[in-house]
Automatic annotation (TrEMBL):
The lineage of its organism: Bacteria, Bacillati, Bacillota, Bacilli, Bacillales. It comes from Tenuibacillus multivorans. It is an enzyme of class 3 (hydrolase). Pfam families: Cyclase. This is Kynurenine formamidase. The gene is kynB. The active site is at H56. It comes from the Bacteria. Homodimer.
Amino acid sequence: MIIDISRLLNSHTPTWPGDTPFSYELTWSQEETGSVNVGQFTTSCHTATHVDAPFHFKSDGMTIEKLPLEVFVGNALVIDVSTKGQITTDDFKGLNLSNIRRVLLKTETWTGNEFPTQIPVIDPELGSFFLKNGIELLGVDLPSVDPLDSKTLDTHHALLKNGVHILEGLRLSDVDPGIYRLTALPLNIEGADGSPVRAILETLD
């Protein structure tokens, strides 16, 4: 079974205050061309479900087209932390992280169609913890892995320092905790600081 964990892109999709909203319109209609409809869209690289490239928060960081694609395809562990105001290494006690390279955090904080005003705090110490446990991707159902008003982006930088890539804006409300196969490939956009993705989970037999 395939579970779509992407947020819908339309004119109502919430985005960071002041950032470029998503829009789609027809450039030419079939009636005009005589054969096809041709559309165009405009959006921020960080609207809805997206991957952050290190260049997003570090000027000499890697851009989106240079990220290793294998990080965004493979088994992922979904963890329910919906009761937590702060997510720390303690929330991973008792979990078997053997052979787990990707972790998705289900916080249930951003379930509606309004941009959240407050989100759980993700401890930057998770960066070194993930490195020790071989985890290379952190996915969240949040617009950011850092507090919404953060300027230092401590968790972004801690994850980068420890080789952990970032997937944000997931939709995990209908996903039970467990192991799935994740596919969440960023677009091949030269020089970009991020990219929207169509993220899916597949149940394992």
